[in-house]
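ok new one. same drill as before - C-alpha coordinates go in, u give me an amino acid for every spot. 445 of them this time. try not to just spam alanines like last time pls lmao
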Protein backbone atom coordinates (compact mmCIF):
# COMPACT_ATOMS: atom_id res chain seq x y z
CA UNK A 1 0.00 0.00 0.00
CA UNK A 2 1.52 3.36 -0.88
CA UNK A 3 1.96 6.15 1.63
CA UNK A 4 -1.01 8.18 0.41
CA UNK A 5 -3.37 5.26 0.80
CA UNK A 6 -2.04 4.64 4.30
CA UNK A 7 -2.55 8.29 5.22
CA UNK A 8 -6.15 8.16 4.01
CA UNK A 9 -6.81 5.03 6.04
CA UNK A 10 -5.38 6.79 9.12
CA UNK A 11 -7.46 9.94 8.47
CA UNK A 12 -10.56 7.79 8.29
CA UNK A 13 -9.95 6.36 11.75
CA UNK A 14 -12.28 7.82 14.35
CA UNK A 15 -10.24 8.73 17.39
CA UNK A 16 -13.23 9.94 19.40
CA UNK A 17 -16.98 9.70 18.90
CA UNK A 18 -19.66 12.08 20.17
CA UNK A 19 -22.02 10.54 22.71
CA UNK A 20 -25.71 11.33 23.25
CA UNK A 21 -28.38 9.93 25.58
CA UNK A 22 -31.68 8.16 24.99
CA UNK A 23 -34.46 10.66 25.65
CA UNK A 24 -37.42 8.51 24.64
CA UNK A 25 -38.65 5.45 22.73
CA UNK A 26 -41.65 5.59 20.37
CA UNK A 27 -42.56 2.22 18.93
CA UNK A 28 -39.49 1.02 17.09
CA UNK A 29 -37.82 4.46 17.05
CA UNK A 30 -35.34 5.58 19.71
CA UNK A 31 -35.08 9.33 20.35
CA UNK A 32 -31.58 10.56 21.23
CA UNK A 33 -30.64 13.92 22.76
CA UNK A 34 -27.27 15.62 22.44
CA UNK A 35 -26.36 14.70 18.86
CA UNK A 36 -28.71 16.87 16.82
CA UNK A 37 -25.98 19.38 15.86
CA UNK A 38 -23.54 16.71 14.77
CA UNK A 39 -25.54 13.97 13.10
CA UNK A 40 -26.27 13.51 9.42
CA UNK A 41 -28.99 11.31 7.99
CA UNK A 42 -27.58 7.82 7.53
CA UNK A 43 -24.83 8.08 10.18
CA UNK A 44 -24.30 5.00 12.36
CA UNK A 45 -25.38 4.94 15.98
CA UNK A 46 -24.44 2.42 18.66
CA UNK A 47 -26.53 2.32 21.83
CA UNK A 48 -25.11 0.66 24.96
CA UNK A 49 -27.86 -0.93 27.03
CA UNK A 50 -27.62 -0.88 30.82
CA UNK A 51 -27.41 -4.70 30.73
CA UNK A 52 -24.27 -4.43 28.65
CA UNK A 53 -25.46 -5.42 25.18
CA UNK A 54 -25.23 -3.05 22.22
CA UNK A 55 -27.87 -2.00 19.72
CA UNK A 56 -26.77 -0.61 16.35
CA UNK A 57 -28.85 1.65 14.15
CA UNK A 58 -28.89 4.62 11.85
CA UNK A 59 -29.96 8.27 11.97
CA UNK A 60 -33.44 8.40 10.47
CA UNK A 61 -34.62 11.94 11.32
CA UNK A 62 -33.03 15.06 12.78
CA UNK A 63 -35.00 17.53 14.92
CA UNK A 64 -34.04 20.81 16.63
CA UNK A 65 -32.81 19.13 19.79
CA UNK A 66 -33.10 15.37 19.28
CA UNK A 67 -32.51 12.80 16.55
CA UNK A 68 -34.46 9.63 15.76
CA UNK A 69 -32.54 6.38 15.59
CA UNK A 70 -33.87 3.44 13.60
CA UNK A 71 -32.36 0.40 15.35
CA UNK A 72 -31.29 -2.63 13.28
CA UNK A 73 -33.20 -4.96 15.64
CA UNK A 74 -35.93 -4.60 18.29
CA UNK A 75 -35.36 -1.90 20.91
CA UNK A 76 -35.85 -4.39 23.77
CA UNK A 77 -34.19 -3.39 27.04
CA UNK A 78 -33.45 0.19 25.98
CA UNK A 79 -33.82 2.66 28.86
CA UNK A 80 -33.79 6.44 29.30
CA UNK A 81 -30.28 7.94 29.38
CA UNK A 82 -28.59 4.92 27.80
CA UNK A 83 -25.48 6.30 26.01
CA UNK A 84 -25.50 6.41 22.20
CA UNK A 85 -22.30 6.98 20.18
CA UNK A 86 -22.35 8.58 16.73
CA UNK A 87 -20.12 7.21 13.95
CA UNK A 88 -19.74 8.78 10.53
CA UNK A 89 -20.45 6.38 7.68
CA UNK A 90 -17.17 5.58 5.94
CA UNK A 91 -17.05 6.75 2.31
CA UNK A 92 -16.95 4.17 -0.43
CA UNK A 93 -13.60 4.14 -2.19
CA UNK A 94 -13.94 1.70 -5.06
CA UNK A 95 -11.00 0.89 -7.32
CA UNK A 96 -9.66 -1.84 -9.57
CA UNK A 97 -8.70 -3.91 -6.56
CA UNK A 98 -12.44 -4.31 -5.80
CA UNK A 99 -12.86 -6.44 -8.92
CA UNK A 100 -13.41 -10.08 -8.00
CA UNK A 101 -14.42 -9.14 -4.45
CA UNK A 102 -17.62 -9.31 -2.38
CA UNK A 103 -18.26 -6.24 -0.24
CA UNK A 104 -21.01 -5.01 2.03
CA UNK A 105 -22.90 -1.73 1.42
CA UNK A 106 -20.40 0.13 3.63
CA UNK A 107 -17.39 -1.01 1.59
CA UNK A 108 -16.22 -3.69 4.02
CA UNK A 109 -15.03 -7.00 2.56
CA UNK A 110 -17.35 -9.98 3.02
CA UNK A 111 -14.94 -12.58 1.72
CA UNK A 112 -12.58 -12.59 4.69
CA UNK A 113 -9.65 -10.98 2.86
CA UNK A 114 -8.31 -7.45 3.52
CA UNK A 115 -9.55 -4.72 1.19
CA UNK A 116 -7.45 -1.55 0.90
CA UNK A 117 -9.24 1.71 0.09
CA UNK A 118 -9.23 3.09 -3.43
CA UNK A 119 -8.02 6.57 -4.29
CA UNK A 120 -11.29 8.45 -4.49
CA UNK A 121 -14.17 8.61 -2.00
CA UNK A 122 -17.57 8.32 -3.71
CA UNK A 123 -20.91 9.50 -2.33
CA UNK A 124 -23.43 6.68 -2.07
CA UNK A 125 -26.39 8.77 -3.14
CA UNK A 126 -25.82 10.90 -6.23
CA UNK A 127 -27.84 12.67 -8.89
CA UNK A 128 -27.89 11.19 -12.39
CA UNK A 129 -26.05 13.09 -15.13
CA UNK A 130 -28.15 15.96 -16.53
CA UNK A 131 -30.53 14.60 -19.14
CA UNK A 132 -29.45 17.14 -21.77
CA UNK A 133 -25.77 16.31 -21.40
CA UNK A 134 -26.23 12.56 -21.61
CA UNK A 135 -25.33 10.74 -24.79
CA UNK A 136 -28.15 8.83 -26.48
CA UNK A 137 -28.19 5.09 -25.93
CA UNK A 138 -25.21 3.46 -27.67
CA UNK A 139 -24.18 0.38 -29.61
CA UNK A 140 -25.83 -3.00 -29.35
CA UNK A 141 -24.08 -5.28 -26.88
CA UNK A 142 -23.49 -8.93 -27.44
CA UNK A 143 -25.26 -10.68 -24.55
CA UNK A 144 -24.08 -14.28 -24.76
CA UNK A 145 -27.68 -15.39 -25.36
CA UNK A 146 -29.21 -15.87 -28.80
CA UNK A 147 -32.69 -14.66 -27.79
CA UNK A 148 -31.43 -11.36 -26.39
CA UNK A 149 -29.00 -10.82 -29.26
CA UNK A 150 -31.89 -10.96 -31.71
CA UNK A 151 -35.43 -10.52 -30.37
CA UNK A 152 -34.62 -8.34 -27.35
CA UNK A 153 -31.46 -6.36 -28.05
CA UNK A 154 -29.70 -4.53 -25.25
CA UNK A 155 -27.72 -1.42 -26.16
CA UNK A 156 -25.11 0.43 -24.12
CA UNK A 157 -26.81 2.55 -21.50
CA UNK A 158 -30.15 0.74 -21.76
CA UNK A 159 -32.06 -0.07 -18.57
CA UNK A 160 -34.03 -3.27 -18.62
CA UNK A 161 -36.32 -4.96 -16.09
CA UNK A 162 -36.28 -8.73 -15.59
CA UNK A 163 -39.73 -9.71 -14.34
CA UNK A 164 -40.56 -13.15 -12.96
CA UNK A 165 -42.19 -15.09 -10.16
CA UNK A 166 -40.06 -16.77 -7.52
CA UNK A 167 -37.76 -19.56 -8.66
CA UNK A 168 -38.25 -19.02 -12.39
CA UNK A 169 -34.58 -18.27 -13.08
CA UNK A 170 -33.93 -14.55 -12.47
CA UNK A 171 -30.66 -15.00 -10.60
CA UNK A 172 -29.36 -17.62 -13.02
CA UNK A 173 -30.08 -15.39 -15.98
CA UNK A 174 -28.34 -12.43 -14.33
CA UNK A 175 -25.32 -14.67 -13.73
CA UNK A 176 -25.35 -15.73 -17.38
CA UNK A 177 -25.30 -12.06 -18.37
CA UNK A 178 -22.48 -11.35 -15.91
CA UNK A 179 -20.44 -14.06 -17.59
CA UNK A 180 -21.37 -13.53 -21.22
CA UNK A 181 -22.29 -9.90 -21.80
CA UNK A 182 -19.95 -7.60 -23.64
CA UNK A 183 -18.92 -5.19 -20.84
CA UNK A 184 -15.66 -3.98 -19.28
CA UNK A 185 -16.85 -4.62 -15.75
CA UNK A 186 -19.93 -5.98 -13.99
CA UNK A 187 -21.31 -4.63 -10.71
CA UNK A 188 -23.84 -6.90 -9.02
CA UNK A 189 -26.12 -5.78 -6.17
CA UNK A 190 -27.47 -8.73 -4.18
CA UNK A 191 -30.21 -7.20 -2.06
CA UNK A 192 -31.95 -9.11 0.69
CA UNK A 193 -30.96 -12.66 -0.32
CA UNK A 194 -30.46 -15.26 2.40
CA UNK A 195 -26.80 -15.57 3.48
CA UNK A 196 -26.52 -19.07 2.04
CA UNK A 197 -27.83 -17.82 -1.31
CA UNK A 198 -25.13 -15.14 -1.61
CA UNK A 199 -22.43 -17.80 -1.25
CA UNK A 200 -24.16 -20.12 -3.64
CA UNK A 201 -24.65 -17.35 -6.18
CA UNK A 202 -21.04 -16.23 -6.08
CA UNK A 203 -19.34 -19.61 -5.99
CA UNK A 204 -21.69 -21.88 -7.94
CA UNK A 205 -23.90 -19.76 -10.20
CA UNK A 206 -21.54 -16.91 -11.09
CA UNK A 207 -18.39 -18.99 -10.72
CA UNK A 208 -14.76 -17.86 -11.09
CA UNK A 209 -15.38 -16.87 -14.73
CA UNK A 210 -18.12 -14.41 -13.72
CA UNK A 211 -16.24 -13.12 -10.67
CA UNK A 212 -13.15 -12.35 -12.75
CA UNK A 213 -14.62 -9.04 -13.87
CA UNK A 214 -17.31 -8.47 -11.23
CA UNK A 215 -17.72 -6.52 -8.01
CA UNK A 216 -20.49 -8.00 -5.84
CA UNK A 217 -22.16 -5.75 -3.27
CA UNK A 218 -24.35 -7.80 -0.94
CA UNK A 219 -26.74 -7.21 1.96
CA UNK A 220 -28.42 -10.32 3.29
CA UNK A 221 -32.02 -10.63 4.47
CA UNK A 222 -31.01 -10.67 8.15
CA UNK A 223 -29.46 -7.20 7.87
CA UNK A 224 -31.37 -4.06 8.74
CA UNK A 225 -33.73 -2.46 6.25
CA UNK A 226 -31.41 0.55 6.06
CA UNK A 227 -28.45 -1.65 5.12
CA UNK A 228 -30.47 -3.56 2.51
CA UNK A 229 -31.71 -0.32 0.98
CA UNK A 230 -28.19 1.11 0.97
CA UNK A 231 -26.96 -1.97 -0.92
CA UNK A 232 -28.55 -0.79 -4.17
CA UNK A 233 -27.16 2.74 -3.76
CA UNK A 234 -23.66 1.56 -2.87
CA UNK A 235 -23.54 -0.82 -5.82
CA UNK A 236 -24.68 1.99 -8.11
CA UNK A 237 -21.95 4.24 -6.66
CA UNK A 238 -19.39 1.55 -7.50
CA UNK A 239 -20.79 1.35 -11.05
CA UNK A 240 -20.62 5.15 -11.35
CA UNK A 241 -16.97 5.22 -10.29
CA UNK A 242 -16.06 2.86 -13.16
CA UNK A 243 -18.36 4.72 -15.58
CA UNK A 244 -16.58 7.98 -14.76
CA UNK A 245 -13.34 6.33 -15.79
CA UNK A 246 -14.81 5.71 -19.24
CA UNK A 247 -15.70 2.05 -18.76
CA UNK A 248 -18.64 0.18 -20.21
CA UNK A 249 -20.31 -1.05 -17.01
CA UNK A 250 -22.98 -3.70 -16.67
CA UNK A 251 -25.04 -3.19 -13.49
CA UNK A 252 -27.18 -6.09 -12.29
CA UNK A 253 -29.58 -5.72 -9.35
CA UNK A 254 -31.23 -8.74 -7.72
CA UNK A 255 -33.78 -7.60 -6.73
CA UNK A 256 -35.45 -4.19 -6.90
CA UNK A 257 -38.42 -5.73 -5.10
CA UNK A 258 -36.26 -6.30 -2.00
CA UNK A 259 -34.90 -2.75 -2.33
CA UNK A 260 -38.49 -1.44 -2.38
CA UNK A 261 -39.45 -3.65 0.58
CA UNK A 262 -36.46 -2.35 2.56
CA UNK A 263 -37.53 1.20 1.77
CA UNK A 264 -41.08 0.39 2.87
CA UNK A 265 -39.77 -0.76 6.26
CA UNK A 266 -37.71 2.41 6.70
CA UNK A 267 -40.47 4.75 5.53
CA UNK A 268 -43.12 3.10 7.69
CA UNK A 269 -40.85 3.42 10.74
CA UNK A 270 -40.40 7.10 9.89
CA UNK A 271 -44.18 7.51 10.00
CA UNK A 272 -44.99 7.62 6.28
CA UNK A 273 -48.47 6.27 5.59
CA UNK A 274 -48.78 3.30 3.23
CA UNK A 275 -50.50 3.92 -0.09
CA UNK A 276 -49.72 1.65 -3.05
CA UNK A 277 -50.75 -1.77 -1.70
CA UNK A 278 -48.73 -1.24 1.47
CA UNK A 279 -45.88 0.68 -0.18
CA UNK A 280 -45.41 4.33 0.84
CA UNK A 281 -45.79 7.00 -1.88
CA UNK A 282 -42.04 7.74 -1.65
CA UNK A 283 -41.28 4.32 -3.15
CA UNK A 284 -41.89 5.72 -6.65
CA UNK A 285 -39.26 8.52 -6.54
CA UNK A 286 -36.94 6.14 -4.68
CA UNK A 287 -37.01 3.55 -7.49
CA UNK A 288 -37.00 6.14 -10.25
CA UNK A 289 -33.95 7.87 -8.79
CA UNK A 290 -32.06 4.57 -8.59
CA UNK A 291 -32.86 3.61 -12.19
CA UNK A 292 -32.03 7.08 -13.51
CA UNK A 293 -28.51 6.82 -12.14
CA UNK A 294 -27.93 4.00 -14.65
CA UNK A 295 -27.97 4.80 -18.35
CA UNK A 296 -25.66 6.53 -20.81
CA UNK A 297 -22.92 8.77 -19.43
CA UNK A 298 -21.94 12.23 -20.60
CA UNK A 299 -19.09 12.97 -23.04
CA UNK A 300 -15.89 11.37 -21.79
CA UNK A 301 -17.67 8.94 -19.48
CA UNK A 302 -18.62 5.34 -20.11
CA UNK A 303 -22.16 3.97 -19.76
CA UNK A 304 -24.05 1.98 -17.17
CA UNK A 305 -26.20 -0.65 -18.83
CA UNK A 306 -28.53 -2.08 -16.20
CA UNK A 307 -30.72 -5.09 -15.61
CA UNK A 308 -33.02 -4.87 -12.58
CA UNK A 309 -34.76 -8.04 -11.46
CA UNK A 310 -38.29 -7.75 -10.14
CA UNK A 311 -40.26 -10.40 -8.32
CA UNK A 312 -43.81 -10.51 -9.60
CA UNK A 313 -46.20 -12.63 -7.59
CA UNK A 314 -48.14 -14.89 -9.95
CA UNK A 315 -47.94 -13.07 -13.27
CA UNK A 316 -49.26 -9.85 -11.81
CA UNK A 317 -47.40 -7.28 -13.89
CA UNK A 318 -49.65 -4.59 -12.41
CA UNK A 319 -48.39 -4.99 -8.87
CA UNK A 320 -46.95 -1.64 -7.73
CA UNK A 321 -43.20 -2.22 -8.05
CA UNK A 322 -43.48 -3.86 -11.47
CA UNK A 323 -45.76 -1.06 -12.59
CA UNK A 324 -43.39 1.70 -11.43
CA UNK A 325 -40.43 0.01 -13.12
CA UNK A 326 -42.14 -0.58 -16.42
CA UNK A 327 -42.74 3.16 -16.66
CA UNK A 328 -39.10 4.02 -15.97
CA UNK A 329 -37.18 1.39 -17.93
CA UNK A 330 -36.32 0.98 -21.60
CA UNK A 331 -37.49 -2.58 -21.86
CA UNK A 332 -38.72 -5.61 -19.99
CA UNK A 333 -37.76 -9.24 -20.13
CA UNK A 334 -40.46 -11.54 -18.79
CA UNK A 335 -39.68 -15.02 -17.53
CA UNK A 336 -42.53 -17.48 -17.69
CA UNK A 337 -43.15 -20.20 -15.14
CA UNK A 338 -44.69 -22.60 -17.67
CA UNK A 339 -41.61 -22.36 -19.87
CA UNK A 340 -39.36 -22.97 -16.84
CA UNK A 341 -41.51 -25.92 -15.78
CA UNK A 342 -40.93 -27.68 -19.07
CA UNK A 343 -37.20 -27.14 -18.54
CA UNK A 344 -36.35 -24.50 -21.12
CA UNK A 345 -33.89 -21.96 -19.72
CA UNK A 346 -33.66 -19.03 -19.84
CA UNK A 347 -37.46 -19.13 -19.58
CA UNK A 348 -37.84 -15.85 -21.51
CA UNK A 349 -41.30 -15.26 -22.94
CA UNK A 350 -40.08 -13.58 -26.13
CA UNK A 351 -43.62 -12.71 -27.24
CA UNK A 352 -44.45 -10.70 -24.12
CA UNK A 353 -41.01 -9.16 -23.60
CA UNK A 354 -40.10 -5.83 -25.18
CA UNK A 355 -36.90 -3.91 -25.89
CA UNK A 356 -37.40 -0.22 -26.51
CA UNK A 357 -34.06 -0.01 -28.29
CA UNK A 358 -35.90 -1.51 -31.29
CA UNK A 359 -36.31 -0.74 -34.15
CA UNK A 360 -33.28 1.62 -34.07
CA UNK A 361 -30.88 -0.98 -32.69
CA UNK A 362 -31.35 -3.38 -35.62
CA UNK A 363 -30.92 -3.11 -39.39
CA UNK A 364 -33.94 -3.29 -41.73
CA UNK A 365 -33.31 -6.93 -42.56
CA UNK A 366 -32.86 -7.78 -38.88
CA UNK A 367 -36.08 -5.95 -37.99
CA UNK A 368 -37.78 -7.95 -40.72
CA UNK A 369 -36.59 -11.22 -39.13
CA UNK A 370 -37.73 -10.05 -35.67
CA UNK A 371 -41.20 -9.11 -36.82
CA UNK A 372 -41.62 -12.38 -38.73
CA UNK A 373 -40.63 -14.39 -35.68
CA UNK A 374 -43.02 -12.34 -33.54
CA UNK A 375 -45.83 -13.03 -36.01
CA UNK A 376 -45.27 -16.78 -35.86
CA UNK A 377 -44.85 -16.77 -32.07
CA UNK A 378 -48.12 -14.84 -31.70
CA UNK A 379 -49.93 -17.19 -34.03
CA UNK A 380 -48.63 -20.29 -32.22
CA UNK A 381 -49.40 -18.93 -28.77
CA UNK A 382 -52.94 -17.95 -29.72
CA UNK A 383 -53.65 -21.51 -30.78
CA UNK A 384 -51.46 -23.29 -28.27
CA UNK A 385 -54.32 -24.69 -26.20
CA UNK A 386 -55.95 -26.06 -29.36
CA UNK A 387 -52.67 -27.55 -30.57
CA UNK A 388 -52.01 -29.23 -27.24
CA UNK A 389 -55.56 -30.60 -27.15
CA UNK A 390 -54.95 -32.18 -30.56
CA UNK A 391 -57.60 -29.99 -32.22
CA UNK A 392 -55.22 -28.40 -34.71
CA UNK A 393 -55.42 -29.60 -38.29
CA UNK A 394 -52.93 -28.56 -40.90
CA UNK A 395 -54.13 -26.55 -43.89
CA UNK A 396 -56.69 -24.21 -42.32
CA UNK A 397 -54.31 -21.34 -41.58
CA UNK A 398 -50.98 -21.14 -43.47
CA UNK A 399 -49.37 -18.79 -40.90
CA UNK A 400 -50.26 -21.16 -38.08
CA UNK A 401 -49.00 -24.11 -40.14
CA UNK A 402 -45.62 -22.47 -40.48
CA UNK A 403 -45.65 -21.43 -36.82
CA UNK A 404 -46.22 -25.06 -35.80
CA UNK A 405 -43.37 -26.20 -38.06
CA UNK A 406 -41.02 -23.52 -36.70
CA UNK A 407 -41.92 -23.84 -33.04
CA UNK A 408 -39.48 -26.57 -31.88
CA UNK A 409 -36.55 -24.87 -33.60
CA UNK A 410 -37.44 -21.43 -32.26
CA UNK A 411 -37.86 -22.86 -28.78
CA UNK A 412 -34.39 -24.43 -28.98
CA UNK A 413 -32.96 -21.19 -30.39
CA UNK A 414 -34.34 -19.21 -27.42
CA UNK A 415 -32.42 -21.48 -25.04
CA UNK A 416 -29.17 -21.11 -26.94
CA UNK A 417 -25.97 -19.59 -25.52
CA UNK A 418 -24.20 -17.59 -28.19
CA UNK A 419 -20.45 -17.08 -28.17
CA UNK A 420 -20.17 -15.99 -31.80
CA UNK A 421 -21.77 -12.56 -31.51
CA UNK A 422 -24.95 -10.86 -32.67
CA UNK A 423 -24.44 -11.44 -36.42
CA UNK A 424 -24.18 -15.19 -35.87
CA UNK A 425 -27.42 -15.20 -33.85
CA UNK A 426 -29.30 -13.42 -36.64
CA UNK A 427 -27.82 -15.79 -39.25
CA UNK A 428 -29.11 -18.76 -37.28
CA UNK A 429 -32.54 -17.22 -36.77
CA UNK A 430 -32.79 -16.29 -40.47
CA UNK A 431 -31.86 -19.86 -41.37
CA UNK A 432 -34.60 -21.26 -39.10
CA UNK A 433 -37.16 -19.01 -40.81
CA UNK A 434 -36.01 -20.10 -44.26
CA UNK A 435 -35.91 -23.78 -43.30
CA UNK A 436 -39.51 -23.53 -42.10
CA UNK A 437 -40.52 -22.07 -45.48
CA UNK A 438 -43.57 -23.67 -46.96
CA UNK A 439 -46.88 -22.69 -48.56
CA UNK A 440 -47.37 -20.10 -45.82
CA UNK A 441 -44.65 -17.91 -47.31
CA UNK A 442 -46.57 -17.52 -50.51
CA UNK A 443 -49.85 -17.00 -48.74
CA UNK A 444 -48.52 -14.30 -46.40
CA UNK A 445 -46.30 -12.42 -48.79
N1 LIG B 1 -30.27 -21.60 -17.02
C1 LIG B 1 -30.74 -22.56 -16.23
N2 LIG B 1 -30.41 -23.83 -16.44
C2 LIG B 1 -30.88 -24.83 -15.67
N3 LIG B 1 -31.70 -24.64 -14.64
C3 LIG B 1 -32.09 -23.40 -14.37
C4 LIG B 1 -31.62 -22.28 -15.14
N4 LIG B 1 -32.18 -21.16 -14.64
C5 LIG B 1 -32.93 -21.56 -13.60
N5 LIG B 1 -32.88 -22.89 -13.43
C6 LIG B 1 -33.60 -23.68 -12.39
O1 LIG B 1 -34.49 -22.82 -11.70
C7 LIG B 1 -34.13 -22.71 -10.32
C8 LIG B 1 -34.35 -21.31 -9.85
O2 LIG B 1 -33.46 -20.43 -10.51
P1 LIG B 1 -33.08 -19.04 -9.86
O3 LIG B 1 -32.55 -19.23 -8.48
O4 LIG B 1 -32.23 -18.33 -10.83
O5 LIG B 1 -34.53 -18.36 -9.80
P2 LIG B 1 -34.95 -17.00 -9.14
O6 LIG B 1 -36.04 -16.47 -10.00
O7 LIG B 1 -33.76 -16.14 -8.94
O8 LIG B 1 -35.52 -17.49 -7.75
P3 LIG B 1 -35.85 -16.60 -6.43
O9 LIG B 1 -37.15 -15.93 -6.71
O10 LIG B 1 -35.92 -17.62 -5.35
O11 LIG B 1 -34.72 -15.63 -6.27
C9 LIG B 1 -32.68 -23.16 -10.27
O12 LIG B 1 -32.35 -23.71 -9.02
C10 LIG B 1 -32.63 -24.21 -11.36
O13 LIG B 1 -33.13 -25.41 -10.90
MG1 LIG C 1 -32.99 -15.26 -7.20
Amino acid sequence: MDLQLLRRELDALELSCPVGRVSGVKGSIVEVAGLADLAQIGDHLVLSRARGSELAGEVLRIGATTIDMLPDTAADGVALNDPVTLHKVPSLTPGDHWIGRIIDPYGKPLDGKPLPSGREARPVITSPPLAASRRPMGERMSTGLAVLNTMLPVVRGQRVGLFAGSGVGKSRLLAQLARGMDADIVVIALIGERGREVNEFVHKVLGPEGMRRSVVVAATSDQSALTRRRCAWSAMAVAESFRDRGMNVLFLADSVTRFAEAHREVATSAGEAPALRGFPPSVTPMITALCERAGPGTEGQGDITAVFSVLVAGSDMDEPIADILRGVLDGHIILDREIAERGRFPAIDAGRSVSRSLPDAASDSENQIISEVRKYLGSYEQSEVMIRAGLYTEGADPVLDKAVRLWPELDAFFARSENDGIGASFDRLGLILRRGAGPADHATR
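The radius of gyration is 25 Å. and btw The pocket of adenosine-5'-triphosphate (ligand 1) is lined by residues 164, 166-172, 311, 345-346 (CB under 6 Å).
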